[in-house]
Amino acid sequence: MVRKSVAIKSVPRGGDPGRADNIRQIIFERAIDLFDVKGFRGTSMNEIAEACGVSKPAIYHYFRNKSHLLEMLYESITSEFFRTMEKLAHSTGDANARLRRLIRLQTLHNIENRRFLTIFWRERHEFDELSRTALAIREREFEAWVMRIIEEGIASGEFRRADARTAAFGVLGLLSTVHRWAPYTERRPEDVADEIADLLLVGMTEEKAPERRVMGEETCDFQNCSKEKES
């Protein structure tokens, strides 16, 4: 990680193989500052270049446009995380432990990167079609990894029988918002992660009694309906 105070012009030239990555990181940091204040649409590539102390063509050397910049910023923040999640989903062993680890890792990752995620979820509708397609592919992959663990847990009897797709979307729906509200809990990220994992896994493992509903004189559960006369 390049320190925020570093300027692009001060990054050493020569044969350093990490120079391009260092420059991209500086551009990312300046762009986040501008997106945070002015929004994605309100920030121009020229303003990003000025904030970096370089010309606009220098920015276009690394990114084809703003959407590509935001897409690559997303990639730089999530690439290692997604590699870990993929390995976890395709590993063997206890599904309960794997899902717990996935929930904890995503919670901690989202809290750590809450500033970027706030901007990302606010501005993602501004992405161009190519960037939206790339993001959609990655998101469908992640959903499939979560679903895989849940399906394996249901098959092994570790999780109660449920619709795996609904369960996966429920887990992901909660985790996608944790960066917004976690600071208000005034608890350590690790404690928030443990609490969320506990709550979700209780729902995955405890059997529910059949839900009953009354419709006129019919008392129904999910399996049976019987006529009951009023006393």
TrEMBL record:
<dbReference type="InterPro" id="IPR050109">
    <property type="entry name" value="HTH-type_TetR-like_transc_reg"/>
</dbReference>
<dbReference type="GO" id="GO:0003700">
    <property type="term" value="F:DNA-binding transcription factor activity"/>
</dbReference>
<dbReference type="InterPro" id="IPR023772">
    <property type="entry name" value="DNA-bd_HTH_TetR-type_CS"/>
</dbReference>
<feature type="DNA-binding region" description="H-T-H motif">
    <location>
        <begin position="44"/>
        <end position="63"/>
    </location>
</feature>
<dbReference type="InterPro" id="IPR009057">
    <property type="entry name" value="Homeodomain-like_sf"/>
</dbReference>
<dbReference type="Pfam" id="PF17932">
    <property type="entry name" value="TetR_C_24"/>
</dbReference>
<keyword id="KW-0238">DNA-binding</keyword>
<feature type="domain" description="HTH tetR-type">
    <location>
        <begin position="21"/>
        <end position="81"/>
    </location>
</feature>
<dbReference type="InterPro" id="IPR036271">
    <property type="entry name" value="Tet_transcr_reg_TetR-rel_C_sf"/>
</dbReference>
<keyword id="KW-0804">Transcription</keyword>
<dbReference type="InterPro" id="IPR001647">
    <property type="entry name" value="HTH_TetR"/>
</dbReference>
<keyword id="KW-0805">Transcription regulation</keyword>
<dbReference type="GO" id="GO:0000976">
    <property type="term" value="F:transcription cis-regulatory region binding"/>
</dbReference>
<dbReference type="Pfam" id="PF00440">
    <property type="entry name" value="TetR_N"/>
</dbReference>
<protein>
    <submittedName>
        <fullName>TetR family transcriptional regulator</fullName>
    </submittedName>
</protein>
<dbReference type="InterPro" id="IPR041490">
    <property type="entry name" value="KstR2_TetR_C"/>
</dbReference>
